[in-house]
Amino acid sequence: MIRHLLLTTAAAATLAACQAQQEEDARDVLNMQNDAQAVPVNGAAETLGTSTTGTGMMQSAQLRTADGRQVGTVSTRDEGGVTVLTVALQGMPQGTYGMHVHSVGKCEGPKFESAGAHWNPENRQHGAQNPRGPHAGDLENITVGQAGSGGVTANLRDVALRGGMTPMFDEDGAALLIHAKADDYRTDPSGNSGDRIACAILGGGETAAGG
Hints:
Blueprint: H1 2-33, E1 46-53, E2 56-64, E3 70-79, E4 82-90, E5 95-97, E6 99-102, E7 106-107, E8 142-144, E9 149-157, E10 174-179, E11 196-202, E12 206-207
Parallel strand pairs: 7-12
Antiparallel strand pairs: 1-2, 2-3, 3-4, 4-9, 5-8, 6-10, 10-11
């Protein structure tokens, strides 16, 4: 009995430490990305611009709710043919949220329908657990801890930011959307992830006023 209690206590402590480290990492990413100069706009999202890093060109943008409140940042960069996408959330309620790349770089509130459907150049169905999926824009869920922050870094292989037949950053750009609920990774078209609650413009596109 004592051994079982000790093991249970140790496992709980390890889990808490991992969650605390994830939240700290997310805050570090958010602080790093916020060092970029941002020009305020009367809109639901804004692009912070690009910067050169040791591993390539990085573009950063703010994630905003329909009322203009900033709740995080998203950055993209190309590392030798692998697209690295990093999302950091802050000031969000604790929970798990769906997250996807959408096909149009336009964030217009209140529902962000202007961002279109998921980025899906191969015309597949939604979800990594769907035998006919996934969409190219399907990403893993992002978890926000008790401190209100969370972060995810995704390495997207065979995804070109620019150039090629189906670049993510085409003429109308793309958008990163946070959804109100967790993605179930299988239900077409959006994993039952609920409303679109925050949006960031990727690769150009348009800013638009929230409503």
